[in-house]
Amino acid sequence: MKNWEIIETNFDPNALRYKETVFTLGNGYLGTRSTFEEGYMGEESLTLIHGIFDDVSIVHTELVNVPNWIHCEIVINGERFRLDRGVLLDYCRKLDLHNGVLTRVVRWRSPAGYTFDIAFERFASLADEHILGVRCKITSVDFTGAVEVRAGLPGYVDNTGFVHWQWLDQGSIDQQTAYLTVCTKKTALTLSMACHVEVEGAGPITYHPQDCTWSPTVMAQGNIAPGQALTATKLVTVFTARDTGVPQTAALDKLQAAVKAGYDAARVANDAAWADVWNTCNITIEGDDEADLAVRYSLFQLLIAAPRHDSRVSIPAKTLSGLGYRGHAFWDTEIFMLPFFIYTQPDVAHNMLLYRYHTLPGARRKAAENGYEGAMFAWESAATGDETTPRWVPGRGGELIRIWCGDIELHITADIAYAVHTYWRATGDDAFMRDYGAELILDTARFWGVRVEWNAARGVYEINDVIGPDENHDHVNNNAYTNHLVRWNLQMALHILSWLRATYPEKAAALCAQLELTPERLAHWRDVIANICIAHDPETHLIEQFDGFFELETVDFNDYEPRVTSMQGLLGVEETQKYQILKQPDVLMMHYLLPDAYDSVTVKANWDYYTPRTDLTYGSSLGPAIQAALAARQGDIGAAYQHFLLAARTDLQNARGNTGEGIHGATAGGIWQAVVFGFGGARLTEEGIICEPRLPSSWTRVAFQLVYQGERITFDLVHR
Amino acid sequence: MKNWEIIETNFDPNALRYKETVFTLGNGYLGTRSTFEEGYMGEESLTLIHGIFDDVSIVHTELVNVPNWIHCEIVINGERFRLDRGVLLDYCRKLDLHNGVLTRVVRWRSPAGYTFDIAFERFASLADEHILGVRCKITSVDFTGAVEVRAGLPGYVDNTGFVHWQWLDQGSIDQQTAYLTVCTKKTALTLSMACHVEVEGAGPITYHPQDCTWSPTVMAQGNIAPGQALTATKLVTVFTARDTGVPQTAALDKLQAAVKAGYDAARVANDAAWADVWNTCNITIEGDDEADLAVRYSLFQLLIAAPRHDSRVSIPAKTLSGLGYRGHAFWDTEIFMLPFFIYTQPDVAHNMLLYRYHTLPGARRKAAENGYEGAMFAWESAATGDETTPRWVPGRGGELIRIWCGDIELHITADIAYAVHTYWRATGDDAFMRDYGAELILDTARFWGVRVEWNAARGVYEINDVIGPDENHDHVNNNAYTNHLVRWNLQMALHILSWLRATYPEKAAALCAQLELTPERLAHWRDVIANICIAHDPETHLIEQFDGFFELETVDFNDYEPRVTSMQGLLGVEETQKYQILKQPDVLMMHYLLPDAYDSVTVKANWDYYTPRTDLTYGSSLGPAIQAALAARQGDIGAAYQHFLLAARTDLQNARGNTGEGIHGATAGGIWQAVVFGFGGARLTEEGIICEPRLPSSWTRVAFQLVYQGERITFDLVHR
Predict the structure, then answer these.
(1) What ipTM was reported for this prediction?
(2) CB of B318 closer than 8 Å to CB of B665
(3) Model pTM score
(4) Å between B155 CA and nearest CA of chain A
(5) No. of H helices and E strands in chain B?
(6) How far apart are CA A68 and CA B514, in angstroms?
(7) What CA–CA distance (Å, rounded) separates B691 from B706?
(8) Which of A210, A391, A400 has its CB closest to that of B212?
(9) Cis bond before residue A562 (omega within 30° of 0)
(10) Percent of chain A at pLDDT exceeding 90
C-alpha cells in the first residue's frame, strides 16, 4: 500500500542522529532509537521504558537508557562488520508503518575485500510488549569461511554520558540463552532482560556463550560459501520491577514461551495487533502523498509512545525516542497529543489522564510549597508529579540561565483540567469524571481561587508574574491565554460540582468536605469568573497578550531571513523580551481551545495581528499545526496548508534541526488535529460530532474515524 | 620490619569507600583505588592516569577513570565468587609499603557449600610505570571440579556516573592476549591497554577468549581437587597519546616484552625501585608505632602520586586516589606536598614546578580575562592552567551555591612563587631559576603590581575583595596572609631580578623586555612593598586576619561539641561569615611560611588568639599538621603532638569522614613537614640545614634524610 513506508537509500553519517530518531521503534512500553545492531561511532543508542526514571542533577529525574536489546555483531575472518570500515556498496533502511518493523539491507565489502549482503530486521511487539525480536541474515557473495555472530545484552549504556545502572546479576541458561539483571542507582528499580539466539546456515553451527560481566552474549559460529547464508534470530524479553515482583523470572519464563512459539509467531501476532490498531485510527489522504505519509507517520509516533497498559505514566514531550526534556511530560501531552487518543482510542486516553490523577499528590505538594491551596501541576512532570523543570541550565558561555517555567508557567494546571473535560465530553465516561476527573477539576480551581490577586484600583482579579504559551516573554501580568483558561477552569469546576450534586450527591458531599468547598469559596470563584482581567478591545477586537504587550517594539522578521534558528536565538533571551516576537500562538491558542468565546471577527482580527508576530519556522514546534487548524477553521485553506506543511516536515525532514533530540510529539498530535479539526472540520456539538470539511485543493479524499460516546463513526470526505 | 604494613582483617561493607582509598596503589603514572578484582556492589572502582583529562560540566575538566586493569573474576561450577554471596570465613587485606604490593587472602564458602582459599596480589610497577600485574591463586579446600578465571579490560567505566570514553578498537592477539583502545570524548586522548593471562594448575588449562565489545576478556578453565590450586597471572600494559604516537602498538610491544620476562621479574624490578626510593626518603620514628606507620604511610601516598617522568602534570589535591576535586591541583601541592620532594627527591620537585611554568599561559589568560597584567594562577588547575574552579555547586536543597575561590582566592599566585624560591634555595638549581623560575616570580609580581589598590585616605596599598586561606570568610579586604605573601612576592621579584642581572644579564634583559619591567614598574613595586596594608598592632602583637575580623562575633566551639561536621556545616555558609571561626590557619599560616617576619612574642600572641578560633577537627584538613609544626617550633611539644595526631589519623582512621573521596594529599605533605620542620626542627639557614629537635616525649629516635644543594644529609635524632 502506498505511503506506508519510511525509506532511506543512502547512509549519511552526518544525518546519523536525526535518522536514529526518525526510524524509532516502539510498542507503548518502550521506544528504541534506530541505531545500528553492530554500533556506530558517535551514535546515540537509546531504549527508554515508560516509568523507569532515575535521579540526576539539574533536571531532577530522567528516563533511563536500558540495556541495548538490538545488539548483534558480525565478525568475518576476524573482521568486525562496521559501516565505518570497508566499502558500503548498497544500503536501504525501511520502516514499515503497517507493523512497526524496521529493516536494513546492505551490501558491504570488508577491508579484506570480501563482499556480503546483510539484511537486518527488528520489531518491538505490539501484541506482547515484553517481546522484542532481531533477525540478521548474512549472505556471502564471494567469501568462503567462518562467520561469527555475537548477540547479547550490553548493559553498559548511559544517558548522554551518565550511567544509571548498577549490575545485579547475569548468566547463561544454556549456550543460546543469556540474561542480565540491573538496578537503577537511586530509584532502585530492577530490570531484567533475557535473550535467546538461534543461528541457521548450510553447515553446522557452534555456540560459545560469552559471559562478560555487564554484557552476557551468545556467540555462534558457522561456515558459509558464496551464495550461502547464515541467519541469526534473536528473541529478547524484558521486565522491570514496575511490571512484576521478580523481573528475572518473568523475563526468562516469557523468553522460554516466546522461543517455543518462535520468532515468526511473534511477528504474526505483532502484525495482527498493528492491523487492529490501524483499524481504529488510520487516516487516508488521497491526492497528496506527502501529507498522507506524514500524517500516518505522526500517528505511528503517537501509537508507539502511548502507554496502552499503564495508567501511571504519560507520553513525554519527545516521546520515548530521545533524551530531549529527559522524558518529562508537559502540556504537550494533554493539549496536543491527547485528542487523537480521546477520539480514536479512549482507553489509552483514560490511562493518560489517570496519570495526572495519580500525580495529584505531587501537584498539591507544589501548590503547598509555593504557599497556595489546591493542585498546581508541574510544568515538567515525571514519576511523582513533583516539579522537575530545571531551575538553571548552562548557557553558551558557561553562564547559567534561570528557567522560570517550573515556577510561573501556570497554565498547565488549567490545560489538564481542560483535557479532562474534553475526554468526558467526547466519551461520556461519567464514572471517570465522578471518580477522578471532578476531584482534579475542583482542586485545580481551588488553586486558581487563591492564586488570583484582587486589584482594587482596576476592579479586576489579576494573575501576575506568569509565563504564557509564548515563552519568549516571562514574568508577564495577565497573560490572555492563562486568564481565559483560568476563567474556564473555575466555570467548569462550578459546572462539574452542580452535575455531581445532581448525579452523585454522596461523591459531591465527600469532595466538598475533602476540598473545603465552602459556599464562601464557591462565591469567590463566581466573583473571579465575573471580574478576571480580560483585555479585549471592542473597537479593534484585539486581545492584548499580556499587560503592555502592545507597547513592545515590533520587528520585521524578514529583516532576519534567511535564518536557521529562532528569533530568540538570534537576539538573545533578554533582548527578545522587548519585542513583539511570539515563540508560539498565545491569544490564538486561546481562540483555538475556546472557539465559542469570541465571534469570528474577533478571531480574524487577532489572527491577522498575531500571526506575523509569531516565529513559526524556528519558534516552538507546537505552533504550526495549531495555526493550520485555526486557519482552516476560518476558511483560509491556503494559509492552513502552508502551516500544515511546516508541521508535517518537522521530523521527517528535520526541519528545525533538532529531531536528533527526539520526535516532536506535540507536533504529531497537532498534525492529527489539523487534519481532523482543521481540514476535516470535525467538531463536537450538543448533538454529537459534525464535520464541515475545508480540504486543501490537492486533497481529493480524506477518510478518518472518530469515537463519540462509545460509538465509532467513519468520516469519508471527498473533495467537492 | 615493623610499621611497614597497612592491614585489614575484617571486611566491612559500610567502610568500603574509605578503605578503597586507604589501600590505593600507584606508581607516579597512575593511581588505582583498592576495589576488588571481582567487583562489589556500590564500589567506586577507579584508576586515574596523570594528565588524562576530559571535559565535564560545572567542574570544567576532570581526570578520567580508565579501563579497569585489576579485573579478575572467578567462576566455580557456574557460581561467581563474590563477597556479597556465600560466606566469608576469613579475610585479610594488606598493603606492603615496602614495595606497594596489595594482597588479599580470603577463605570463602560458596552458596553451593564449597570452600576455597583465594589469594590476590597486585602492583603497579614503580620500575616501569606502564606495567601492572595481578595474580590470583584459588585453592580448593573441599571442591572437585572446574574453575574458570575471567580476566580482561572492562572499558565501560565511568566517573561517578559520567562516561568519558568512546570505543575505538579491541581484539585478541592470541587466546591469552587481549587489547582495548578507547578515546576520551572531548579531549580526544587515545588510551590502549593490553593484557596477557596465564593460568597454571594441576591439570590442563583451556583458554577461551571472550571478545565482548568494550570488555575483551581472557577466559581460562581448569580443574582442581581438594588441596589443589589454580594460579592466574595477569600482566597489563597501558599507554596513552600523552606517552607515545600509537598507544596500541606501544602497549602490545611492552606486553610482549613483559610476558617474556615474566611476572616475577616485573615484581623484582618493582621491589628494587621501591627500595631505591625509600632509601632517599624514609623516616623512622622509634617509640611511637602509630606515628612511625602514619608518617611512612603519608610518604607512600606522596610517592605514588608524584609524577616522576612528566613535567606537565601535578599532584591533585586528592592525589590519584579519588574523584574529590576532580583531579585538580591547588596550593596544596606547592605549599604542603612539595617540600617533601624538594628535600628528598629534587628531580620530582623540579617536574612539579615545571608544571606551573608550563601553565603560565593559562595563568596569563586568567589575568587578562580579569583585566590584569602578569600571571594570575588558577585556584584549581588542570591540563592547561586555565581556571577550573566550579563557579556554582549544588547545595543541599538543590539551590546553587556560588563558589568564589576561582575568582578571588588570589594567594595561590604568591604561594607558587614562594615554592619556586624554596626549591631554588634548597637545591641551588640556578639553571632552573634562570630558565623558568625567574619568569614565574617576575610575572606573578607583575600581577600583584596591578592588582593592589592605592587607598589615599589610609595612605596604604590595599588588596580588597579576596579569600584568604580561611575560606569561611569570603570577599574580605586586606587578608593578612595574602598581603604578607604579596609583599614577599614583590620583594623576591626584585631580588631575583638583581641576581639575574648580576649572573645572567642576557636573560635579565630578555625578561625585562618580555615582561615590560620598566624602571617605573620596579619603582612601583618598591612603593607597594613599603606601603602595603599590614594590620599589626604593636601593643597586643595581634595581626588582624582581615579588615574587621576583630569586630566579628566570637563563638565557643565547646557549645557545639560533640560534633562530626564543620562549624560551617552546622551554622551555614552565610551565618559562619559573621563569626570568628577559621576553617584553617591564616595569620598562623603566614607565620609558618615567613618565620623571620615577626619575633616569637608576636607569633605566640597570634597563636594564642587564633588557635581556639580555628575549626581544627572538621575545618580544613590543611590545618592540623601546620599547627603541629608551628607549635613544635614554639616549643609547645604537647600541643604539637595533639595536632600531629589529628593529622596522622585523617586518612588511616577516616577521621573527617571523607577519605572515601580520596587521600588528603596536603595532610600527607603536612605530616612530613610537622616531623621534619616541627619535631625535627630542621630549617634552612645561610649555612645550610640545621636541626633543633623538639621530640614528643614518647619518641626515642627520629631519623630522616634531607638533600641540600645536591648533598644528602642524614639526621638521626635520639631523644635526650
Answers:
(1) 0.80
(2) yes
(3) 0.89
(4) 9
(5) 22, 27
(6) 58
(7) 11
(8) A210
(9) yes
(10) 95
